[in-house]
Amino acid sequence: MADTLVTSVADHRGEEPPALMIPLLPTADDILPLLRQIDSRRVYSNDGPLAQSFRAELAAMLQSRTSSPTPLHVATVVNGTTAIELALRLRAGLGRYVIMPAYTFVATAHAVVNAGFEPWFADVNPQSWALTPGIVEALLPSLVEAPAAVVAVSPYGAPLDQHAWNAFEERTGIPVVLDMAAGALSLDFVGRVPACLSLHATKMLGIGEGGAIVSQDAELIAAARTASSFGFDPGTRMASRRGGNYRISEYAAAIGHAALTQMSKRETRLKSIAQTYRSCFEGVPIGWQPGFGDNWVAMTLNIRLPAEQIEATTVALNTRGIPWRRWWSLGCHTHPAFAQSPCGNLTETESLAPATIGLPFHEIITEGQIRLVVDVVRKSLA
Ligand SMILES: *Cc1c(COP(=O)(O)O)cnc(C)c1O
Q: 9, 308, 326, 333: least buried by Cβ within 10 Å?
C-alpha cells in the first residue's frame, strides 16, 4: 500500500492537485452592456424588462432541449430552495408528510419544512441513486396517513424519468414536485409536474443566486409568479393569494442573460472532461451514474467506491492533497436538524452515501491533473 502511494506521487511529481470545483460565471465585461441598460431605464426590480426577457429566454432554451411541443412556462425566484418550497405550497394536498429521498442535498428537507410539512425520508434506487415512483408505491400501503406530496430529486443533476413521475401523479392523485436543482440542462421532458431549478453559482446555469419553476401548467406558473410578488396579480396591488417576495432583481436577470449565452460552451467542455475521466477510469471497479458524461453532465463528478475501499481511497487522496467531498454528506436523516423526521428502510442510502465521493471537476482542470486523480484512486483500489 505505502509503496503504491509513493509510486503514484513520483509519477506525477510537479502536477499541482486540482481544485475541487471552480464556478465560472459571466465576467464584468460580459454583463456591462446589460448594466448600462439598467442605468438608463432606472428599473431595478418588480419583474422589470430584463427579468421578463430572461424568463422568456430560459423557457425557450429549456423548450428547445425537450422532446415535447407543448409550451413550457417558467417562474424565476430567488433560489432553488425557494422554488421547491413555493411549488410545494402551491401543489401539496392535505397531510403532514412529504415523501422525499434521504439521499439529497439538505436544501430539499428545508424546503419541505418551510412549506409547512415534515419530511418522510425514503430510500433510493441503487442504480440511478434516485427515489423512483416504484419505491413510493411500495411504501404507500405501510403509511398510516397519505402523504401531502412527493418530492423526487435529480441525483447530482441526472435526468429523472419525468414521464413516470407525471404518470405516478395521475395514477395516485399524490402531487409531485421535482427537485431538479442541479439538473437544469437535464430536462428532456417537462409535463405538468413542476421541475425546480437552482441558478446558484455552483450549478450549470449559475447566476450567483437564483431559481426557477418550470411546468406545462400555465396556471401553476402564473400562481407562482403571483405568490412571488406579495400575492399581487399582474398590474394590481391587491393580494389575491398568500406568498412573499421571491423575485429576482434586474441585476440578477442581467447575469442570467449573459449566462444563457455561455451555457452550451460550458456544457460541451464539461462533457469532454467527464469523458476523459471516464476513459482514464476504464477498468477501475467504481460505480457511475447512468449516462454521466455521454447523455448529461452537471457541475460535479461523483463516483461510487467499493464499500471496503472507502477508507483507503479517501486517505490516499488526502495524502496527495487532492480535494474530494461527499456533496450530499451521509443523507438528510443524518443531519441533527432532521434526525427526528420519520423514515422508512434506508438500506440503499446507507450503503450509497458513504461510498459516493465528488472528485475535482471544473472547466479548467488539465488532463495531467485528471490523470493524477485517477491514478491515486486506481492505486488505492489495487
Ligand atoms: C443546489 C441544490 C438545491 C438548492 O438550490 P439553491 O439555489 O442553492 O437554493 C436543492 N436541491 C439540490 C438537489 C441541489 O443540488
A: 308
Confidence class for position 234, pLDDT limits 50, 70, 90: confident
Distance CA 1, CA 5 (A): 6
Distance 148 CA to ligand 1 centre (A): 21
Per-residue pLDDT of 75-89, as tens digits, reads 999 999 999 999 999
Measuring CA to CA, which residue among 82, 121, 87 is closest to residue 104? 121
Q: How many CB atoms lie within 10 A of CB 131?
A: 28
Amino acid identity, position 256: G
User: Mutate which of 200, 326, 328, 335 to test ligand 1's pocket (most atoms within 8 Å of Cβ)?
Assistant: 200
Query: Cα–Cα distance between 247 and 334 in angstroms, integer?
Result: 32
Of 2-6, 28-32, 103-107, 135-139, the poorest mean pLDDT is in 2-6
Q: From 41, 114, 75, select the one nearest 247 (Cα to Cα).
A: 75
Residue 78's nearest CA partner among 57, 59, 51, 98 is 51
| Ligand 1 center–CA 43 separation, angstroms | 29
What is the rounded distance in angstroms from the CA atom of residue 368 to the CA atom of residue 374?
10
Residue 8 has pLDDT above 70, yes or no: no
* pLDDT tens readout for residues 164-211: 999 999 999 999 999 999 999 999 999 999 999 999 999 999 999 999
Q: For helices 49-65 and 28-41, what crossing angle results, to 10°?
A: 130
Q: Ligand 1 mean position to 154 CA, how many Å? A: 10
Expressed in angstroms and rounded, the spacing between residue 378 Cα and the centre of ligand 1 is 31
Name the 3-class secondary structure at 331: coil
- Burial (CB < 10 A; 0-12, 13-18, 19+), residue 265, is exposed
Whether the CB of 184 sits within 6 Å of ligand 1: no
CA gap 43, 48 in Å, rounded: 6
Ligand 1: atom nearest CA of 104 is: 13
